[in-house]
Specification:
about 300 residues, Rossmann fold, 2 domains, 6-stranded parallel sheet, 3-stranded mixed sheet, about 15% strand
Length: about 300
């Protein structure tokens, strides 16, 4: 197999579009599909073919890349793509799908003769657009030559977690990492909300922790988005963050761990979405601290 592949990309939201664009720029043949076609059409300017159906996108593909909302959505789309799937093709499954869903997807891959790779990514819009994601990957060693050019095009680093994609070791690591990301995001919002309520200038807080163990680049980045009103376009949307938080809570519960912070974060994200912030960056969970949108 050459290093230049035919890649069918299913799902061209914030992350999927950036990944498809970088695959095309790397010289791979990209066939992209999205349920809402308008989200995929801009990729044509980068050389991608925009497919009308999932089956068209994957027909003849060396690699199928899925970046959809969740596990059930991914399974539904792959079933729609079934008539175009080639036995022996590699499936790079990058949706944050949850542990049980990964097992279901791996079972579908086995039924269709696909080589399954559990490959969620760590990063948001900006690193995705720059091709600087971290790919967390699990799947058979003997097939990795087919997917490594894809990982190299979309990411700066690949972390292999195992050789059985269906076991979900990459997804497990992703859930652990996201639990920290979501907790830090929620905490940043609450710090600013409490500052506002107590009439404390946030700059005073940042000066207080500057350079010490409590300082954190991520805290400053998310706080800056809130304070400067830079919540759109989203780096990682509130609705997706809420979905991931629920997956984290469910994974903990299934394994005998109560995750109070993740539970509260899921509730904050859902409340922010209900207030109309669902498509904004997850930092907009800040607004969930208020009954009404605060004045500047």
């Amino acid at each position: 197999m050459t290093d230049k592949l035919i890649v069918g990309v299913l799902g061209t939201g914030i992350m999927g579009a950036a990944m498809a664009r970088n695959l095309a720029r790397a010289g791979h043949t990209v066939r992209a599909w999205n349920r809402t076609r308008a989200k995929a059409e801009p990729l044509a300017a980068d050389g991608a073919h925009i497919a009308d159906t999932p089956a068209e996108a994957v027909r003849g593909a060396d690699v199928v890349l899925t970046m959809l909302y969740d596990g059930p959505a991914t399974l539904d789309v792959m079933r729609e793509a079934a008539s175009g799937l080639r036995s022996g093709a590699a499936w790079v499954q990058s949706t944050t799908a949850g542990i049980d869903a990964v097992a279901d997807l791996a079972a579908f891959a086995a039924e269709r003769g696909l080589v399954f790779y559990d490959a969620p990514v760590l990063g948001t819009r900006q690193p995705a657009e720059a091709g600087q994601l971290t790919v967390l990957a699990a799947g058979p060693v003997e097939g990795r030559g087919a997917v490594e050019p894809v990982f190299d095009a979309v990411g700066a680093r690949t972390v292999w977690t195992g050789d059985d994609g269906g076991a979900g070791s990459a997804t497990r690591l992703k859930l652990v990492a996201n639990s920290w990301v979501l907790a830090a995001t929620a905490a940043a919002g609450e710090v600013l909300a409490l500052s506002k309520a107590l009439d404390v200038d946030p700059a005073g807080f940042f000066d207080l922790v500057a350079g010490g163990p409590l300082d954190m680049g991520y805290l400053r980045a998310k706080a800056g988005m809130i304070l400067e009103g830079r919540l759109s376009p989203a780096q990682f949307a509130v609705t997706t963050a809420g979905k991931d938080a629920r997956l984290i809570v469910e994974a903990g519960r299934a394994n005998g761990v109560r995750l109070d912070v993740a539970t509260a974060t899921a509730e904050r994200m859902e409340r922010a979405a209900s207030q109309g912030h669902g498509d904004e960056d997850m930092a907009a969970a800040y607004y969930a601290s208020f009954e009404e949108k605060p004045t500047d």
